Amino acid sequence: MGRWSKLFPRLSDTLLSDRRFQLHSEEISMETPIERVEILRQEVARFKERVANLAPQDRELPSACDGWTVADVVAHLVGQAFPLTVSRGLQGDYSPPPGAPAVTAHNEDDFARNIFQRAFNTRAEVGDRLLEALAERLDESVTVFEGVGHEQWDNLCYWPPGPETVRVMLDMRISELSMHAWDVCSRFDSDYRLSDGAVRVLMDTVPRAVRRAFRPDPSLSAPVIFRFAIDAPVVALYDLVFTPEGAVLQQPQDPKTTQADVAFRCDGETYVMVMYGRTAPDAAIASGRLLWEGDDVLALGFGRRFLGG
């Protein structure tokens, strides 16, 4: 179904002969922060328009985000403090805001549980003003990032796992919004798609999804490499490397000498939907959106490697 057809050249040979895949993705997809602020504006406008007329009963429907209703997802976006932490960072302050945990106290599992609980708490706090609060918070985010000076993009901001630069916070704001917009909008529109701009940003933030989705696996006796070749909207080549200590996403220095156990090829939207846990790898393979070559057992068992989220 999703296997690279024997009627065509081997997928690995195709990748190595295609000069596009010999370039680092940042050489092809680099965007300026100003261009990414424009992506944020567009994503904010798109989502606000989509949810503006949600009926109360629609908000109680399950979203595509496991365990959350539509209203829970919206509350999660409202509860994210990007405007506060970025504003503090622009003034040189990346210490924890009042009530936030210290970076030294970070625990990945606790972090995930706190995200869920904060969404429920935020929903209770804003009550019937949920959609108004969403619009206000998203507009605040746009305003803050629009006001970043040229020399401030590398300022550090508080983030529970460790301080991040303003430019990284911008990417996280876009990624969180665009993926959760899909969680909501796909519930009412089966043809809803991520924008190319959102896909480009999400591709850059996949390493964060990897950190949370794949946990240490002591049963591995040797590294296992899954290679992803993305062909649109930008071209990129990534290796997802599993070791007993966990998983890391990296760009192969020389794909010709680094042998992958499995090679996948797909577009950027399929890549981020799989890596962010919205599309099961088996489903992507079965539909032909995720082509593969290599070890059959590893390729078809890739979905079982998602150990946590």
3D structure, described in words:
Residues 5-10 and 23-28 have low confidence and may be disordered. The chain has 309 residues and is α+β, with helices and mostly antiparallel strands. It has helices at residues 11-17, 26-29, 33-51, 56-59, 70-79, 82-90, 108-126, 130-146, 166-185, 196-213, 268-275, 281-286, 296-300; strands at 156-157, 164-165, 224-230, 236-243, 246-250, 262-266, 291-294. A hairpin with a 5-residue loop joins strand 3 and strand 4 (236-243). Helix content is 47%, strand content 11%. The strands form two sheets. It has a five-stranded mixed β-sheet with strand order 5-4-3-6-7, with helices on both faces. Strands 1-2 form a two-stranded antiparallel ribbon. It is built from 13 helices and seven strands. The longest helix has 20 residues, at 166-185. The chain is globular and about 50 Å long. It starts with 10 loop residues before the first helix and ends in a 9-residue tail after the last helix.
Biggest sheet, spatial arrangement of strands: 5-4-3-6-7
Radius of gyration: 20 Å
The H-level CATH homologous superfamily of the largest domain, spelled out, is dinb family like domain
Total of domains: 2
Q: Mind telling me which CATH architecture of the largest domain this is?
A: Up-down Bundle
Q: Shape, please?
A: globular
CA-CA gap between termini: 28 Å
* SS summary, helix count: 13
Strand percentage:
5-15%
Order of helices and strands: HHHHHHHHEEHHEEEEHHEH
Contiguous low-pLDDT stretches (5 residues minimum) are 5-10, 23-28
DSSP summary, beta strand count: 7
Which fold name fills CATH's third level, the topology of the largest domain?
Four Helix Bundle (Hemerythrin (Met), subunit A)
Structural class: alpha+beta
What is the CATH class designation of the largest domain?
Mainly Alpha
